[in-house]
Amino acid sequence: MRLFRFLHNKRVTPGEMVQAALSRTLPRVAGRHVLTVQDTTSLRDASNTTGRSLQLHPTIAIDADDGSLLGLVDARFLTRHGGKRGSTGRRAFEDKESRRWLDATVASAALAEAGALSVTVISDREGDIYEAFAFCPAGIEQIVRAQQDRTLADGTLLSRCLDAAPELGREVIDLPAGPGRPARRATLALRARAIAIKAPKRSGTAATGNRPKGEVALWFLEAREVDAPGGTAPAHWLLLTTLAVPDLAAARHVTHCYRQRWTIEQLFRTMKTKGFDIEASQVEDGGPFENLATATLIAAVEVLQMVRDRDGAANRPMDDVFDPATRPAMSAICKDLEGKTARQKNPHPTGSLAWVTWICARLGGWTGYYGKPGPITIQRGRLELATLIRGWNLRGNV
Questions:
Q1: List of the chain residues with pLDDT < 50
Q2: Segments making up each domain of the chain, as ranges
Q3: I need a labelling partner for 149 at 20 to 30 A (CA). Which of 24, 36, 124, 361 fits?
Q4: CA distance 301 to 306
């Protein structure tokens, strides 16, 4: 009943929940090189029947150096009714759903204002939109996977502009598993050059009151896998970026940043089949489901924060996810969970996020011996931990 009242309360909105999450993220970015990764996922899709679907477009902050997930930056819902594809070229940019890519980029500027040393926005192919470059806030960098074959300012095509460019060098990366593709080591050949892309011939943007400027200076980077295993499609990334890429070190930095986009795919899986299974919810749309989805997004971010620092590499404090006042209860629970062997001892500093993650993993069924705990195990243990902490807090009244 309390959950029903929360979800149906008119004073509870996704926007306020996201702002509360952002307020917790901002203090963590000071002095850091931050990547903000944005993407869209479908939560409900009835396009084959009613033509309506509900999409969620979140933006998350990641430390560019250690890969730790710092928190949520922005999130917005898109309700699609279909029937707009034929008018795409006639509608102004501010009336299009694609505007969300620019809006999320603008929202990322709050991290720079909070003291981040640098902010680089990472977007996949759908974010390859001229306005997202032309109206990007000053001081915010971008890396976008190219989708369109553009005519450049010098009259050449984007797809051919690297034909004569020399190879900067190569790098070997760990390529994560994908649909129908196992994880593997991949060698990438890197090439890059400076370009200028031309403004499209379409309506202006009300947010700025004018048409986009005539051209935008960028760098174009190709990362192509060499010697891919037989029967496997080679990795091939074409990236547009505001960062200069004059040499191999700069090119490797760009590909390193782009590869962090994988984190948001992990987030979507944690919200869905690999965690909270939000798609199976029967809560009605139009407010309650959006509230539930936002709360699930925030919880999934916290679970993924724990997963990504389960080894303690980033040395994040437990305060990133948990109330520090619960530390005495956690210490007692941890002592009870530890066994006699070294593998059954919590190896992480008390009060660290990795320390609490170990506790949640053990409560979730992980033995400490085989593999590493994933989001389902950690979330299961986190729920058990919350129950135990409530019992601890009630002990004085029993």
A1: 203, 206-208
A2: 2-280, 309-397
A3: 36
A4: 9
